Amino acid sequence: MPAELVWSNQARTDVLEIYALIGLEQPTAAERYFDRIEAKAELLRSQPRMGVRRSDIRPSMRMLVEAPYLLLYRTDPDTDEGPIGVVEIIRVIDGRRDLHGIF
Question: Which domains does the chain have, with CATH numbers?
Fold first, then answer.
């Protein structure tokens, strides 16, 4: 059974800011990025462990790349085996930023 996908308020804000920033110069590219980020997040419903663990940021954090952006998320339960009930997207951040400075 697919996991429930939940977006934090900050993750929603991140995506809207990405869309607005790119959209100022390239509206079509903004649509493409929006669609790609959304599609990558949807993959997590059926494959919640596909992201790399990033315990250096937070103990339960995982990261999935949709270049140049990083989807930072957690699963509930936070386990490497058994079913996952919820995937929560915590942030969507430009991968060129200092992640440790943000968290």
Answer: 4-98 (3.30.2310.20)
